[in-house]
Design brief:
Elements (H helix, E strand, L loop, with lengths): L11 H19 L12 E6 L5 H12 L3 E4 L13 H10 L4 E6 L4 H11 L5 E7 L5 H15 L11 E5 L6 H12 L3 E5 L15 E3 L2 H5 L4 E4 L15 H8 L3 H4 L7 E3 L12 H4 L7 H19 L3
Parallel strand pairs: 1-2, 1-3, 3-4, 5-6, 5-8, 6-7, 8-9
Bound molecules: phosphoric acid mono(formamide)ester (CP).
Phosphoric acid mono(formamide)ester binds next to helix 2.
Length: about 300
């Protein structure tokens, strides 16, 4: 059993294998080919301490397509509300036979802590990180890379060399930005990070990316522009942020996109605040927006993550 807990601990071979699987399952699903229930008899728990639409549903669908029995843990109706700890909750699921634990949690280190707790108690459950606070969302980054490979007609062995990607928005609260920056850089892309000074995280300065507070500089001649949502729910101080000013300085509008290559793709991990970080006409521009393709790639990418975790 293997884990998918962060981008850092996955080597290039592992990343290529997951991304090849994502593109293969994507083709099989589109062509209506029989997947063949390769994980029949396995049990998957989806345990989400934070809200989700895309990730939770795509892990549910991915598990079912692979023949896995999938159980969504009803957090609001569970003993978590009687004060049961994350450790005791995941040990309970492991004791009930979990082969896969798909976990979304808030605290830094909670995914690794869950993995260690189960390992120490002798369970062989694979842990898959479905989003950890503001720290990481590796399967989102993987599905974003798979979406880009498909759009660019590249294979994982080709990498993303020669491609420049601007990630613009609330970086400090974005687990997607943290994982995408590490993954895209590992795959050879030039990553540019852009946010107002207050929303630039410490990790942005680790050398994996160029950093700027100027949206137009970030977008200059870029191949891909990714917008991020303002995560008001994670603000612990009253960072002054007027939506109109933010849109004007950091939003993806058609005018802002004129700095990018005419062929530049637009991405957003969702959920979107339309009219703030991205305009309607940009989000819905079928010639360049990959946003719904990112959603669609969630299922085959998570199927591939399950296959990787099970060492298929
Ligand atoms: N991109 C993403 O993680 O979306 P959800 O929060 O809806 O899962």
């Amino acid at each position: 059993m293997r884990h998918v807990t962060d981008i850092e601990t996955l080597g290039r071979d592992d990343l290529d294998r997951i991304l090849e699987g994502a593109l293969l399952y994507d083709r099989m699903l589109l062509e209506g080919k029989d997947i063949g229930d390769p994980l029949r008899g396995r049990l998957q728990f989806n345990l989400f301490y934070e809200n989700s639409t895309r990730t939770s549903l795509s892990f549910l669908i991915a598990g079912r397509k692979m023949g896995v029995e999938v159980v969504n843990v009803p957090v609001a109706a569970s003993s978590i509300h009687k004060g049961e700890s994350l450790r005791d909750t995941v040990l309970t699921l492991a004791a009930q036979g979990a082969d896969f634990l798909v976990l979304r949690a808030s605290g830094a280190g909670s995914i690794d802590a869950a993995k260690s707790s189960m390992h120490e108690m002798g369970f062989g459950t694979s842990v898959i990180n479905a989003g950890e606070g503001a720290f990481g969302h590796p399967t989102q980054a993987l599905l974003d890379a798979a979406t880009l490979y498909k759009a660019l007609h590249r294979e994982p062995k080709d990498g993303l060399g020669g491609i420049s990607i601007a990630i613009i928005g609330d970086l400090v609260h974005s687990r997607v930005a943290a994982s995408c920056t590490r993954l895209f850089a590992k795959l050879g892309a030039e990553v540019r990070l852009c946010a107002p000074e207050d929303l630039l995280p410490q990790w942005a300065t680790d050398g994996a990316a160029l950093v700027t507070t100027s949206r137009d500089e970030a977008l200059d001649g870029v191949d891909v522009a990714m917008a991020l949502r303002i995560q008001r729910e994670r603000f612990d101080t009253d960072i002054p942020l007027d939506p109109e000013t933010y849109r004007s300085d950091y939003g993806l509008s058609m005018e802002a996109l004129s700095f990018a290559k005419p062929t530049a793709f637009v991405m957003h991990p969702g959920p979107m605040n339309r009219g703030v970080e991205i305009d309607d006409d940009v989000a819905d521009d079928q010639s360049r927006s990959l946003i719904l393709q990112q959603v669609a790639m969630g299922v085959p990418t998570r199927m591939s993550c399950l296959a990787f975790a099970a060492e298929l």
